[in-house]
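Appendix B. Extra example for self-study. Work through it before the problem class; the solution is given directly after the inputs so you can check yourself.
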Amino acid sequence: EAGVVQSPRYKIIEKKQPVAFWCNPISGHNTLYWYRQNLGQGPELLIRYENEEAVDDSQLPKDRFSAERLKGVDSTLKIQPAELGDSAVYLCASSFRGYTGELFFGEGSRLTVL
Amino acid sequence: GENVEQHPSTLSVQEGDSAVIKCTYSDSASNYFPWYKQELGKRPQLIIDIRSNVGEKKDQRIAVTLNKTAKHFSLHITETQPEDSAVYFCAAPKGYGQNFVFGPGTRLSVLP
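Solution. Structure tokens for the complete assembly:
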């Protein structure tokens, strides 16, 4: 069974440019998370989806970040415009809805903003 | 909200020795406590977890102990091996919810 799939794995952009990350969760997982992981730190939640509904986006910088999960499966996280401080690894994770248990992470998308 | 701290931030042990990492949390309603291992450049992966109705759980060389009164839980790795070298993160949910707050991580180095 395929795990959580993310793309691209690496992205280098100039500041003020837009960037988008894509995530395909494990089949059957209703809950999807986007985390940001800065170098040497733990993952920090950006947004959590239950199916297509964003149930917690309190940590998402809404002036430049947006996310969507159409049809409750794949999700896209967008940054526009990117800033130097956005350089980080963006991790997508999924889990069974209503179950406080294991998060299954993707390999992450490493963003470098120059 | 939930605040999760980890100690130590770095830990070096000789191969074969034991390693202990401690995690403290603030939300007394938290009821599930996982430990994730992240090797360099890889995804975090769950290695062991514990729910609040038990005090200890063991899986081969790794174990987790929970003290709900003191609001801390610890990861224990015995007979460490070089492949145990990684960054270990503890996490706790915000109350009964599914939003996990991760600790800052502990970098474990197992020296041959």
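Self-check: The first strand of chain A starts at residue 5 and ends at 7. If your reasoning did not lead you there, revisit section 3.
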